[in-house]
User: Which sequence fits this backbone?
């Protein structure tokens, strides 16, 4: 019977350790200041092995961004039940978004700030991730509007396409900003559920009013909200 | 009578031209890729004169950020009437914000993306600008809540401090995101007024509901909005 060979660590495990270490260093230092020596040390690997597996600092950074983007999108997608009502889907998606960014602050730092550090090619990866999320939110808003039209009284002012896209951008920006706040240094940090509730309270209630034709009117100075329904 | 001296361009005019050129180049290329040669050429000045007046690429970048931040804050502040009702102040502030970022897309690019390019010292300048804006919005929300409590029926659920801060972060993030969208490459771009209306419709109406105790409830699956007032 042959002796068992000394098994080396499989390549994918090694690579994962390297990418884990790189995300941590990029999150802390940004792209330019991050050193491959530090990444190698943190990964417990030699620098030549990192270059062999992951090619260059630039490639490594791109790999980090794509992995973190896929993990975030995956977490949000798997939390959302496709046939649930639109508000429930938004709520579940927001909670998953805030839970994931809270659990992976370094991944979120790389996606939200550090990816803009480097320039064009990575800007594009992050912009595409963002565009994908905005598209999902656009569809949610449209479906919410349809639910509302189907389920209630007449007199609706339909949302136009550009307004829906604007709303989606507003919501995504609000979520990004809240994730940064929740992960920030400021004392008592809210939970993912609290953060999702804060956003849901403003966004969804405002959205339902919009769909039902209740709008803030610039003309009505004091009272602000005027029902046009 | 002495002959009039040939007047050279005053230093502050020269410096302004240099900073204008630098903002343009930093907005297009980011900090690392921006070249002092290009800035000098665009400013119609010699590189040694730029170094004499503005010291280093790093100092020049810092000067750009501080100037653009001050211009943006100034535009928003001067648009807001201190004694107007809270919703009118928010509306005027938002319109000024979107008008200024639309009129100065390069300044906004430097503040919103490119400032994160470089690392710690500039991150801090931008973070402070943002913190200042969040504080203004926190006060607006608090005053709006007081207006609502003063002007209407009982049964209010008061907002807690962390929730108000969360709302302010959400609103600021939404505004940043909308400014990026409005300045983006995507075809038919909305006007500053439209963008402000989009945000005001969701944020203010949602906010008024919140103040009056009308909240989205995770438990109420289909209908979503439940009045607790």
Assistant:
């Amino acid at each position: 019977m042959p002796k068992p060979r000394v098994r080396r660590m499989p390549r994918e495990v090694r690579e994962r350790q390297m990418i884990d270490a790189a995300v941590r260093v990029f999150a802390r230092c940004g792209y330019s200041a991050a050193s491959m020596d530090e990444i190698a040390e943190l990964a417990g690997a030699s620098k030549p092995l990192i270059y062999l597996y992951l090619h260059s600092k630039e490639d490594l950074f791109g790999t980090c961004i794509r992995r973190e983007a896929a993990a975030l999108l995956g977490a949000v997608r798997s939390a959302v039940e496709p046939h649930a009502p639109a508000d429930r889907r938004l709520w579940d998606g927001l909670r998953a978004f805030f839970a994931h960014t809270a659990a992976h602050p370094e991944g979120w730092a790389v996606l939200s700030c550090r990816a803009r550090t480097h320039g064009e090619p990575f800007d594009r990866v992050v912009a595409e991730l963002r565009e994908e999320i905005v598209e999902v939110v656009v569809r949610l808003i449209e479906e919410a509007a349809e639910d509302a039209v189907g389920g209630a009284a007449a007199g609706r002012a339909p949302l136009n396409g550009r307004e829906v896209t604007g709303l989606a951008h507003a919501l995504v920006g609000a979520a990004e900003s809240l994730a940064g706040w929740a992960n920030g240094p400021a004392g008592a940090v809210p939970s993912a559920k609290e953060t999702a509730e804060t956003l849901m309270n403003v966004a969804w209630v405002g959205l339902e009013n919009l769909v039902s034709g209740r709008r803030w009117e610039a003309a009505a100075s004091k009272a602000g909200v005027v029902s046009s329904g």
